[in-house]
């Protein structure tokens, strides 16, 4: 079955810097890749997603890139702010079978 | 505001008790899921349902069962709670028929402690 690996497990950046979180997946048939943000005491919230027919997608300060050949995808956050501090999960899905990475705890220091 | 509501934020139960975790969604979604979240292990799928009265085992169904009598409600049951079931439990739903690729809407979670 699908296996999703996520790196790094923790990431600390200064406010205003960029943050990048990377994920790899094993099932070449996976075709949907969402990213979730989980703030303290809350459930994960979908922040951006990308489908396999697209290489890059951007929404304001966040962007996701997908390399199907290498089977990896990344989340990029620019101009980070303290409210970006949270745990971020990547996921890969094939026919609705969604597998999650282990999560990255991002800390943005003011 | 559409949402997934989990009935309890925190629960403390004794070993051997039967525990019910309730989840309700108001988005008319066909698909509902139960995950447990543990540090370093991410989200692991316990059970899911693509339709009323339908259920499928996920990756770690042992010690759990589910019930979906109505479209909007998906209950997770711990038949005889054990300490290794101490965890954060997350309910989620998504639209689409059957195995379709859409993002999930998660509830806020229930932190269960079994003593």
What is the makeup of the main sheet of chain A? 6 strands, mixed
Number of strands of chain B: 12
Q: What assembly state would you assign to the polypeptide chains in this entry?
A: heterodimer
Helix-strand pattern of chain A: EEEEEEEEEEE
**Helix and strand element order of chain B:** EEEEEEEEEEEE
**Which spans of chain B of ≥5 residues are poorly predicted at pLDDT below 50?**
none
Radius of gyration of chain A: 13 Å
- Most extensive chain contact? A-B, 25 and 22 residues
How many DSSP H or I helices of chain B? 0
Distance between the termini of chain B: 36 Å
Instruction: Give the class of chain B from helix and strand content and strand pairing.
Output: mainly beta
Mean pLDDT of chain A: 94
Number of strands of chain A: 11
Q: Looking at the structure, what is the overall shape of chain A?
A: globular
Query: Which range best describes the helical content of chain A: under 10%, 10-25%, 25-40%, 40-55%, 55-70% or over 70%?
Result: under 10%
Question: Describe it for me?
Answer:
The complex is a heterodimer of chains A (110) and B (115). With 110 residues, chain A is mainly β. In chain A, 0% of the residues lie in helices and 59% in strands. Chain A has no helices and 11 strands. Chain A has strands at 4-7, 10-14, 19-25, 32-38, 45-51, 56-59, 62-67, 72-77, 86-94, 97-100, 104-109. Chain A is globular and about 40 Å long. With 115 residues, chain B is mainly beta. In chain B, a hairpin with a 3-residue loop joins strand 5 and strand 6. The mean pLDDT of chain B is 93. Chain B is globular, with a radius of gyration of 13 Å. Chain B has strands at residues 4-6, 10-13, 19-21, 23-25, 31-38, 42-49, 56-57, 64-70, 73-78, 87-94, 105-106, 110-114. In chain B, strands 2, 5, 6, 7, 10, 11 and 12 form a 7-stranded mixed β-sheet that branches. At the A-B interface, strand 4, strand 5, strand 9 and strand 10 of A face strand 10 and strand 11 of B.
């Amino acid at each position: 079955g699908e296996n999703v690996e996520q790196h790094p497990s923790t990431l600390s950046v200064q406010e205003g810097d960029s943050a990048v979180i990377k994920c790899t997946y094993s099932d070449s048939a996976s075709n949907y890749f969402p990213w979730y943000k989980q703030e303290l005491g809350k459930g994960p919230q979908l922040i951006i997603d990308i489908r396999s027919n697209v290489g890059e997608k951007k929404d304001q300060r966040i962007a996701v890139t997908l390399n199907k050949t290498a089977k990896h995808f990344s989340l990029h956050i620019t101009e980070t702010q303290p409210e970006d501090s949270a745990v971020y999960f990547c996921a890969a899905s094939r026919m609705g079978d969604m597998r999650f990475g282990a999560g990255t705890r991002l800390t943005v220091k003011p | 505001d559409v949402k997934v509501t989990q009935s309890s934020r925190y629960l403390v139960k004794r070993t051997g008790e039967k525990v019910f975790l309730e989840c309700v969604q108001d988005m008319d979604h066909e698909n509902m899921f139960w995950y447990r979240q543990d540090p370093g292990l991410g989200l692991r799928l316990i059970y899911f349902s693509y339709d009323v009265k339908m259920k499928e085992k996920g990756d770690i169904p042992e010690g759990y069962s589910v019930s979906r009598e109505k479209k909007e409600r998906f209950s997770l049951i711990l038949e005889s709670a054990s300490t290794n079931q101490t965890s954060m439990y997350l309910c989620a739903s998504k639209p689409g028929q059957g195995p379709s690729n859409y993002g999930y809407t998660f509830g806020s979670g229930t932190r269960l402690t079994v003593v």
